[in-house]
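Follow-up to my post from last week.
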Amino acid sequence: MIRFLARRIGFALLVLWVVATAVFLMYFVAPHNVARLIAGRQATAETVALVRHRLGLDLPVPVQYGRFLLRLAHGDLGYSFVNSESIGAIIRRDLPVTASLALGGAVLWLVIGVGAGVLAAKRPRSALDRVTTGLSLFFYSMPTFLLGELFLLFLFFRLYMAGIRFFPPSGYVPLSASVGEWARHLILPWLTIALVTAATYSRLVRGSMLDVLGEDYIKTARSKGLSERRVTYRHALRSALTPALTQFGIDLGTLLGGAIVTEQVFGLPGLGREAVLAITTEDLPLIIGIVILASAFVVVANIVVDMLYAVLDPRVRVES
Amino acid sequence: MTVPPVAESVPVRTESGSNPPRAIQGRTPWALVFERLRHDRTAVVSAVVVAVIVLVALGAPLIAQIVGHTPDAQFRETGLSAAGIPVGPSRAFLFGTDDLGRDVFIRVVYGTRISLLAGVVASVLAVMVGVVIGLASGYFGGHTDTALSRLMDVVLSLPYLVFAIALVSVVGPSLGISIAVIAFFSWASVGRVVRGQALSITQKEYVEAARSLGAGDAHIMFIEILPNVLAAVIVYTTLLIPAAITFEATLSFLGLGVVPPTPTWGNMLSESMAYYKVAWWFVVFPGAALLLTTLAFNLLGDSVRDAFDPRHDQTFAAHPDAGA
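User reply:
Got it. Predicted complex:
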């Protein structure tokens, strides 16, 4: 287990190094006059030169690269070009929004996706299975931003005009301010993420449940006289969840780094919206910071998932 | 290879009467697949829808000519109300108009071109790269395999949307960049599938036979192994296209794909965000076109997969939008 973990952490560091190098190359070697950008359009050549010097941009590229990696290793993401705010502070401010969105959405999509997958697999080719499979494919094909926009049009606007003023069109209320308002503002974004994502899970879980239900140990469990419910949920679902778990690590990790589309559609001030904003204002350190943070979330989520396998499926423990 | 290379025989019917028993007919695996697809109602319907979408894309200028509107023409007199608000669907504007008084129908028709182009070209590129790297990885094994597998793992564990927008922000948005970005983030999943299959096929006797006859690496990879992973590649390509279409639409929606005024479903839906309260048609029609297209391709992809491997009930690909 320790060796396995060490290997996974090694790989995680490799990914982060690749990401850091990629963004470094993208922004500092690509033809992009960073100093000019910060100094502003009217700046004199001297000012630009001064900015270049202060940022260390006049140093040889390998030295700059070394310094960049060293700063990252210390968790220092630098300062915004736009308002000199520290990137760390911006991330701390935006992360609760994104985390609220991602975690709430994740709970919802797991319940919907896994539930639908199990129900469908219990009665393959039944009417219920057909409906679930059809709906899964429908939402699987649905682009996230489109579902969000349709929700805004029908669930916010049409209901609003009809006198039901429950769903807000946008905005975020912190959890600490009001739990009820926090949830009310997040229902539509949660549903958007959950329905689109749950489709993948119900397809995954249905498939693996069908495989697992045909295995010998399930027959053994049944012949021992265990209740059908116990067989389904305790024995079959546990190992059928493995592929869904892999997907879950990727999905949750990615979302925590910024639910770009959903935040954009519903005007939620999280990391994803910040990233899109940073691109329009050409705030390079902020973009770099968010990209690296997002990658870190994905690799960490993957490691956690790998460890969860052993908890979920006893056979994994034996093999490793 | 998922399709066993044996000919299936047509059951011989011994009917009483003068009809002579039908001869046993050998059929290639490809013919079998086609036969299964032909009898699958979902496959036929989705294939027809895809064909219509392709025709619309090809015939866009013709449709524009028949209607008499170009995609960029602004009908300030007829296409906007006195208050400057888009007008709803009517005989003159089938799908209504947008905020600049342009014909939404014609713009949706033209948007088909970008979506298909981006979806198909990006998928084909991704598949080509994925096949070459996957074959090399599975065939050569050893250090090559380790290095290439790690590379695929790295690409697969990048949060691709954030990364994609960062990339686009450096080089500036355009159709070409969108396609390159989509292909870059899609090849690795193909590569992984191909590698897995190539790994086992490399151990087969006929590969050894080819090698002992003096065949080179390239010959073995592309002539001996490739045809046997083709089924998986075809299935993957059909499922990759809708994912790529969604990816392109998302980039356009975020303002990082094809730049206006060129109409794409993504940038139309982005523009409609400010007008959905007064012009539902501005959201619903481009949205329906986009959804219909991805749905048709996904249904077709599922059917193609089932046709190649009737026993396999469901495989999956990660949602194209995962993490959006």
